[in-house]
Each structure stands twice: as C-alpha cells, then as structure tokens.
Amino acid sequence: MTTIDTTTITVELPEAFDPRWSRLPGIQIDDRRLIIDPAEYFFRFESHTWLVADWELVKSQLLGMDETAETPLEQLALDFITAHGESTSDAARVLSTAYEVYAYLFRDEHLDKLGLPRITADHLRMLRQAATLMALNKVELDGHISNVGPCWFFPAATSIVFDLDDETGGMLDEVYHGGWFNEHRRIESIKAHAALGGRLVHGCQSVPDQSGGVVAPYGASMAAFRDDLAAFKAGWIERVYAHRVTPAA
C-alpha cells in the first residue's frame, strides 16, 4: 500500500495561478500561492525527494553551451546534473524551479515563429502552470513511477481546470509533448530540464493515448516505465475526469 506524506506543500510563485486549479483534489490557490495536500492530490506518492539544480546556474553555465561532435547535448546536460544536481525533500523548491524552467520554455517570444496560429499567449500560460505541477511526478532509475498526480494526464487535467473542449485540450497536449519542440526548442528543453534533474519523456505518441510526460533521470528504464504506466493509467484518468464541472462542448 502506498504511503502518502501528509506534510502540506506551500509555495509562492512569480505568476498568479488560475483559481480553477482548486477543482482538482488537494489544491488550493491564493493568487500566487499554491497549497497542496499530498494525501488528497497524489494518486501515488512514494518518493519525497527530487533532484534539482539551481536555475540561475543552469542559465549562466548551461543554456549558452553548444554540443560538439565529441560531446552531444545530452552528455552536456548529464555532466551538468552530475556536477550540480542536489537531492531535495523541499517540494516547494521543486515547484519554484519548475516554474522557472517552463516560463523559459513556454515564453511568448516564440509565438510568432511557431507556425501554430491557434496557439495564444493564454495557452502558453496554461502550459506553464500545468507543467510546473507535473514536476512533482517522479520516475525512478529502474523505471518505476513513484509519484503520480492528476497533471500526469495533461489533457484531462487542463480540460477540467481551464474548461477546454476535447479538441482544444488535445491541441494543447500536442504542443506540450511535441508540436512546440522543433530542433531549436528541443535543444532548449534538454538544457533547461537539467534544472529538474533529467530529461522530459512522454509515455504517448499522440493525444488519444493520453499517457502523459515526466522529467525522468538519464538512464531510467523506459521499458519498465511503459509497463508501469499501462497498468494504472485508465483508472486514474477516469478519476481525473470525475472532477469535470461542466461537460465539454
């Protein structure tokens, strides 16, 4: 049986979060302050530590680095994590770091170059907020998924919080797990996610599969990750959708 830590997580972030996040169990929103009750929020919360690196250090020492024929980008990120990663049990620090990562990745200046005219600055705000909460999810090196919250299931969670219909929720998910990251932004993503101790991986190839994403440590078993995810996702997606306030159009 999973043991849930009952210590309340409280963090104040630079951006006011949408108050509708409180539609999901265990989340309270007070402008820029997020309060999370782990016992209510998480489906599975077995690990109370995360690997992070200082965001200012990532900005100053990693974001400007270029890969070479001898040292690929992923190796640069792994070396940085090895040198500067810190284990923390402070979930508020994880959320604060994650906000900085996603404020950088989903920044408005990219909109004119996306080639995705339906994506707006408001959509990027939704992506920043959901991805910040997703940083509390966790995969172990052996591929076991130790922490799972509602934001693992990105379209389900965002449709409930932001009153999105299925088409818009799916579009947002496509941007999150692929459509946003052309090669230039994939490079940005690999570097930026070093602040969260790993790389962004997805359990799905397309929106209907809705298998979510997580920042996983380099070297994590993706075969075990896939099998663990397949075993639980259907039931937990239903539990997320149960909190929908009004049926999507």
Describe this structure in words.
- The protein is an alpha+beta fold and 249 residues long.
- The chain has one domain (49-241).
- Helices cover 42% and strands 14% of the residues.
- It contains nine helices and ten strands.
- It has helices at 38-41, 55-61, 73-84, 91-105, 121-134, 154-162, 166-179, 183-192, 222-241; strands at residues 9-12, 27-30, 33-36, 44-45, 50-52, 86-88, 138-139, 145-148, 199-202, 213-216.
- The strands form four sheets. The chain has a three-stranded antiparallel beta sheet with strand order 1-3-2.
- Helix 4 (91-105) runs antiparallel to helix 5 (121-134) and helix 4 (91-105) runs antiparallel to helix 8 (183-192).
- The chain starts with 8 loop residues before the first strand and ends in an 8-residue tail after the last helix.
- The mean pLDDT is 87.
* Termini gap: 38 Å
Number of domains: 1
* Helix and strand pattern: EEEHEEHHEHHEEHHHEEH
Q: How does the major sheet shape up?
A: 3 strands, antiparallel
Q: Provide the residue-averaged pLDDT.
A: 87
The rounded Rg comes to 17 Å
User: Overall 3D geometry?
Assistant: globular
- Order of strands, main sheet, comes to 1-3-2
Low-confidence stretches: none
Number of strands: 10
